[in-house]
Amino acid sequence: MTARAVLYFGVAAHFWYACYYDWNYVNIPPTVHPMGITWGRTNKLKFLTYWDALLQSFFFTIAFLNELLGSTEESPAPKKTSTIRKLKDLLLPCLAFPLSMFVGLTFWGLYFVDRELVFPKAIDPYFPAWLNHVMHTNIMIFVLLEMYMSFRRYPSRSVGLTILSAFMACYLVWLHVIFFKTGIWVYPVLDKLDLIARMVFFICLLGLSVVLYLIG
Fold it and tell me: Transmembrane segments in this chain: where (predicted)?
């Protein structure tokens, strides 16, 4: 097994464990955060952070499997490129990089402006600091390392932006479904904004995700 395969295995395992721990052991009372246990078994799937953690877990698992079973050449001929390598090359620029950077930058940006907008201090006793860094810091570190280490064959820009935009649109719809079902916004910052401000906020966030895709 190559050193890169060992690295991918470790990264994937630590993300999978974080998802498992968050799902099973982080229980925030609704008196502390109204989204803590609201709306049954949607559980952590309310949060884009959790969607991203699952995506990173899946991506680095694919990267590990590619080291074992796929194409590891820097630039294999298209006809000799394995399906798993094609999936890896599609996921990294279209979702894994822009989404991890989006989640990390927006979380820490809002956190340093006013943490109550995104991660209220009252949550600290229920959400371990190590888990917070796995979900919001390590996601950026490891995907940046992967961008540096690995050659990838990019899809066309129209395909990449369509995939990313569809993913972000799905979460945006899901965010509003949760609000209409519960009357509560998943993220406290949205409570502070009126309709127009929320629309501008969402447009800016979608614009940021596109910029991150173009950078990647």
Answer: 48-69, 90-110, 130-149, 161-180, 195-215
DSSP the chain: --HHHHHHHHHHHHHHHHHHHHHHH----TTT-TTSS-SGGGGGGG-HHHHHHHHHHHHHHHHHHHHHHS--SSS--GGG--HHHHHHHHHIIIIIHHHHHHHHHHHHHHHHHHGGGTS-GGGTTTS-HHHHHIIIIIHHHHHHHHHHH----PPPHHHHHHHHHHHHHHHHHHHHHHHHHHS--SSHHHHTS-HHHHHHHHHHHHHHHHHHHHH-
- CA dist 14 and 6 (Å) reads 12
User: Range of 94's domain?
Assistant: 3-215
Based on the structure, what is the number of domains in the chain? 1
pTM score, whole prediction: 0.90
- Please report which confidence band the pLDDT of residue 142 belongs to, taking 50, 70 and 90 as the band edges: very high
